Amino acid sequence: MSIVTRFPPSPTGSLHVGGARTALFNWLYAKKTGGKMVLRIEDTDRERSTQEAVDIILNGMQWLGMDWDEGPHYQTQRFDRYAQLTQQLLEQGDAYYCNCSKERLEALREGQMAAGEKPRYDHKCRDLNLPSDTPGAVVRFKNPLDGAVSFSDLVRGDVTVSNAELDDLVIARADGTPTYNLTVVIDDMDMGISHVLRGDDHINNTPRQINLLQALGATPPIYAHVPMILGSDGKRLSKRHGAVSVLDYDKMGILPHALLNYLVRLGWSHGDQEVFSLQEMIDLFDISDVNRAPSTFNQEKLLWLNQHYIKEADPSELAEDIAGRIEAKGVSLVNGPDVIDTVKMLQERAQTLEDMAQQAVYLYADEIEYDPAAAKKHLRAVAKEPMQHVLSEFEALDEWQTEVIDAALKRILAQFDLKLPKLALPLRVAVAGMAATPSIDLTLQMVGKTKTLARVREAIAYIDERAAAAQDR
Ligand code: GLU
């Protein structure tokens, strides 16, 4: 059997984490088995579907590197096909027109609820043979009355639902537009889908879809319903829990591979392995190993993986991204080090690319701002004299590399009988505005001699101003 999976998002919002994980599982399974994945845009809800949302989905998939093998198909381009098969179902006697009013259906529903019954259509029009020109008529599927639908879910195991539980669902609205269960079924059939891997919020649709497929003479695909993703509070993951869209993670500076690695472990595991190359994901993933219990989204773990992949990355691969992020902060790259060197310097210290760019701004900016707490703590009168010696030592240097910078600093430390932090911390605040930077010699080398001298002078002036202000009080 050739394996065909699908990812069928509705373009009504962003590509969120849950959707991306569903896509990933489908993609991995297709890749693993040498099959293919179909991308299908379920845009029949014309009021809520937007081109912007389609673009976000396509860009998100591309960013994650999940290349689809077929599509995107758009359901709105297949209305003729849906109408054709609706007609076929009507002619076969597997569907019928129903003109029950909204009011009637509502009253029916209320009565059933009051009697403690499951609300369901009462089959009033099922055998009336209403003609196609009945005003305001919808088309309903004639769900079998007896027996049961069974399927063997690759995650859930055997599932059986009695037909008495299932409604005669509406497959075409009064305006002729098809409904979700019909379009999905026809597409899964026409696109030769062999495996439907989707969120378990759809599991109630599955028996209905199987009945429809059978009425259309198609063999149902194999189903696998993946448990949902929960937020840290045990509730279904949503915007309330913070970033949930793939684009947000891109903005934050999460690497696509880190997100994929994180997503693959949400609901799937391979022993206690946490870090997976793409090839390992493809080789090791199997639907039968998907957990039956919901998984919990853990941002800390995502950040941990991201940091891991940032550390492992070839600096030249991150440089372009980091350059763009620094420039996006309104800073020009002209007066600063090669961005590749910046990445090398900060690679071990950043959880996200955004974080890295933020840590790099002082290397390029014309002016820096002091972190108030750091300035208060480290730019104090005691630092003035050592800083003045730093100036004269540095001015005399012909070269500007870590070794010579380091030697100059050591001379000052000896002269003032200081421990390194007493000098390095004020210097860091002076050149970077903050007390936490990589080793002081490397920091200074990267800032460059001219900027270092200017910033040390400014720091001395700042110390003087502070002392003057204190005297005034
Ligand atoms: N378009 C549906 C959704 O986004 C997916 C339906 C399915 O997987 O069958 O929820």
Topology:
Layout: E1 4-7, H1 17-33, E2 36-41, H2 51-64, E3 70-74, H3 79-92, E4 95-98, H4 102-114, E5 138-141, E6 148-153, E7 157-162, E8 170-172, H5 180-190, E9 195-199, H6 205-215, E10 222-226, E11 229-230, H7 246-252, H8 256-264, H9 278-284, E12 295-296, H10 299-312, H11 315-327, H12 339-346, H13 353-364, H14 372-378, H15 384-395, H16 402-416, H17 420-432, H18 440-447, H19 449-472
Parallel strand pairs: 1-2, 2-3, 9-10, 11-12
Antiparallel strand pairs: 4-5, 5-8, 6-7
Helix pairs in contact: 1-9, 5-6, 8-10, 11-12, 11-13, 15-16, 15-19, 16-18, 17-18, 17-19
The structure holds glutamic acid.
What features would you describe in this structure?
This protein has 473 residues and is mainly alpha-helical. Among the domains are: 239-312, Orthogonal Bundle (Glutamyl-tRNA Synthetase, domain 2); 315-361; 372-472, Arc Repressor Mutant, subunit A, CATH 1.10.10.350. It is 48% helix and 11% strand. It has helices spanning 17-33, 51-64, 79-92, 102-114, 180-190, 205-215, 246-252, 256-264, 278-284, 299-312, 315-327, 339-346, 353-364, 372-378, 384-395, 402-416, 420-432, 440-447, 449-472, and strands at residues 4-7, 36-41, 70-74, 95-98, 138-141, 148-153, 157-162, 170-172, 195-199, 222-226, 229-230, 295-296. The strands form 5 sheets. The protein has a 3-stranded parallel beta sheet, covered by helices on one side. Strand 9 (195-199), helix 6 and strand 10 form a beta-alpha-beta unit. The chain is elongated, with a radius of gyration of 32 Å. It starts with a strand and ends with a helix. The site of glutamic acid has 7 residues, from loops.
